[in-house]
Amino acid sequence: MTKIFKDAQSAIFDIKSGQTLMSGGFGLCGIAENCIDALAQRKDLTELAIISNNIGNSGRGLVKLLKNHQISKAYCSYVGGNPDLEEQMLRGEVEVELIPQGTFSERIRAAGLGIRAFYTPTGVGTLIAEGKEVKTFDRPCILEEALHADFAIIKAQKSDTFGNLWFKETARNFSPLMAMAAKVTIVEVEELVELGEIPAEDVHLPGIFVQRIFQGQNYKNEIEYLVTKDQ
Amino acid sequence: MTKIFKDAQSAIFDIKSGQTLMSGGFGLCGIAENCIDALAQRKDLTELAIISNNIGNSGRGLVKLLKNHQISKAYCSYVGGNPDLEEQMLRGEVEVELIPQGTFSERIRAAGLGIRAFYTPTGVGTLIAEGKEVKTFDRPCILEEALHADFAIIKAQKSDTFGNLWFKETARNFSPLMAMAAKVTIVEVEELVELGEIPAEDVHLPGIFVQRIFQGQNYKNEIEYLVTKDQ
Amino acid sequence: MSWNKNQMADEVISLFSNSCSVNLGIGLPTIIAERIPKTLDIIIHSENGVLGVEGRPAKDEVSPTLINAGKETISIAKGASFFDSALSFGMIRGGHLDFCVLGGMEVDTKGNLANWMIPGKKVTGMGGAMDLVNGAKEVIIMMTHFNKAGESKLKKLCELPLTGLSVVHKVVTDKGLFTPNGKTFDVIKLAPGVVEQDLKLPL
Amino acid sequence: MSWNKNQMADEVISLFSNSCSVNLGIGLPTIIAERIPKTLDIIIHSENGVLGVEGRPAKDEVSPTLINAGKETISIAKGASFFDSALSFGMIRGGHLDFCVLGGMEVDTKGNLANWMIPGKKVTGMGGAMDLVNGAKEVIIMMTHFNKAGESKLKKLCELPLTGLSVVHKVVTDKGLFTPNGKTFDVIKLAPGVVEQDLKLPL
């Protein structure tokens, strides 16, 4: 049974309006560019709930979906640098649930690995703790539940045909966690390689978490803030 | 500040009777042979609490400490194949807490990563659930708390001088989790390498979790059940 | 007449789907690995941290750090991966494995399983069994139908301490294939020559 | 007289111990990375998944996949490692980082910090700040002493929504170094020419 798809458009074919999507990447680093573009072309897809650390940045990435008014709910940790999201949030067009980034990561991992909820000190005494169960261990903690999704769209540097993934540098971030957590994980790759080309010890995400793979194209790999030592 | 120690004896110098030790390895695969031997030589160390999946096997590994009556408490998932432990358990010399292996792994990770407790379906309706909080999500789950230790003794195939670790094949198992969870983690290695020799993407455990490192020696790397296709 | 171990293994294999993922427990289920036809493209998981177990190594390819959960030396297929125990059990707990096959001491009509201790007599520990039965999408128990005293291991209610509550989907014994239905066991298939009345299934 | 940004950074650096690990927040604290003397052997963590940030890349060594939490291009030191966000924040939450340095909108005498939103006006989100203040062994806030309206950001009690409760150990402003003591702030050090009475510290 092959997991290989032709392109982004064919890999996202059954995503439906109203579904929940996880989208990998930190800022623009490691985002699933092809999938995002394919979703932006599918303007019939609306009322999407997006789980993504930044929901795009500086007018790019998932901001394409925001501009199309395809997103009605966003789960993220940071909206700074994303004026489109801030605007739609203040206008009430997008409901935003802000989640501390570590809790965000761990809730996604929990969903993927069958942990139903966990106690963390993060957020105690803040707005984040409102309505949540509190229990004291060495210090007070709040109960945070697993965060699930219908689909994940992620990008990897390398994938073999089973979906074993390898990420370059800091492009890994939330992507392997989201791959674990979604019912269907769609991976676009810079390099599609043969089975065995990624050493078994160096696989960052075992292919059992991946349902669809396609060879990506025309990557921009944009840099948000170029800072060099020669400046 | 160097983390490099001369040998096992010098690396375990401040372990005290009554302390809690995590010991990596699955059966005999990936165990910290040098550290275990050094502890067995320190017969003054008694009343140790050991957190280890098997507490040795077939008379080997941590069984050396059992035979010296250095262990008074054991946390593990499986005692089959370890008649010494079964005997001392039935005689009441060692108090054994049996923990489902997935819960065992996750409790250790939780301790290392600041998660105070988590809800899991594993063990619901069994002896394991007795006295534990129950909460129903998609199904009933029990609350399991983080499992901490004073020291961890683990073995890696490679370590650089900062303690970035790389494990071979299935020798990884519990070791990186235990390194995260213990106050002081002692690593013995087959190959001590220079900074930068392990590619940054392929580090299995970042060195921030490691306090002491030494070049191991005289490894037996014993096989419990040799099964080959030629048999 | 009964099925022998190889025939039992083949019955279990006939329950697998193409390209599925499987965890094989220690004891009886280990022989399944060697009998899976390559055409099925089945991915074998071993909870000590490997996905893509192939079979047995050649003598000159044995590695002491490459073992399965039964602590036996193994070989791996192309496309295998290694990981730590938290991720390995996360795969299990998170429902990413299609099947697990475990040995059993008792299975009952409610789908309860007991396979980790006999109070006062024998304690092996649960190892990964409690995680597996609560995590795998389908739980198959592979065991002899009768214990050494001649009593059926398919019971109305388990008497031994449980490994999991309402977790068993199918039971393959040397006598046949059964599914617990809450009241008794449905007989899906019998080994040649086996008569249902002789099986002492709970009423 | 006040400290400029570089002098503030140097004051923060003087609080670090040799071979310690540090997370630097976005905004003001980012300039610290460039001013740390190599002799201190400090390990810089960035919560987007890297330990061992060195500094800035040469123009021809820039990689779009190698950035810090401020989304700026970086270079790494030998012995650096990359990891996913769950492990990155596990390092933080698990207490493995010695210091974090964050910007602030308000700090109060109880050690409370507010730095992620102004109701009705501005929401940036907390990013990793709530995890950092609850996880790092020592939390240092680096900020201007007065806001644009001339009000002290060192308050009796925070008025803005909190980032963390009783989490701040030290505050470095352009006016000096302070520690909250429950009632007011202890003045550890003042910038040259600064007079304590002018700082409007809470009573």
Describe the fold and architecture.
The complex is a heterotetramer, with two copies of chain A (231 residues) and two copies of chain C (203 residues). Chain A has 231 residues and is α/β, with parallel strands linked by helices. Chain A has six helices and eleven strands. In chain A, strands 1, 2, 3, 4, 8, 9, 10 and 11 form an eight-stranded mixed beta sheet that branches. In chain A, helix 5 packs across helix 6. The longest helix of chain A is centred in the middle third of the chain and has 12 residues. By secondary structure, chain C is of the alpha/beta class. Helix content of chain C is 14%, strand content 28%. Chain C is built from four helices and 14 strands. In chain C, strands 4-3-2-1-5-10-12-13-14 form a nine-stranded mixed beta sheet, sandwiched between helices. In chain C, strands 7-6-11 form a three-stranded mixed beta sheet, with no helix packed on it. In chain C, strand 2 and strand 3 form a beta hairpin. The interface between B and D is medium-sized, with 22 and 28 residues. Strand 5 of chain A pairs antiparallel with strand 5 of chain B, so a sheet runs across the interface.
List keywords for this structure.
heterotetramer; A: alpha/beta; eight-stranded mixed beta sheet; 19% helix; 26% strand; C: 203 residues; alpha/beta; nine-stranded mixed beta sheet; three-stranded mixed beta sheet; 4 helices; 14% helix
Poorly predicted segments of chain C: none
Provide the β-strand percentage band of chain A: 25-35%
Percent of sequence in beta strands of chain C: 25-35%
What is the succession of H and E elements of chain A?
Answer: HEHEHEHEHEEEEEHEE
Rg over alpha carbons of chain A = 18 Å
Which spans of chain A have pLDDT < 50 for at least 5 consecutive residues? Answer: none
Alpha-beta content class of chain A: alpha/beta
**DSSP summary: helix tally of chain C:** 4
Calculate the mean pLDDT score of chain C and round it.
95
Quaternary form? heterotetramer
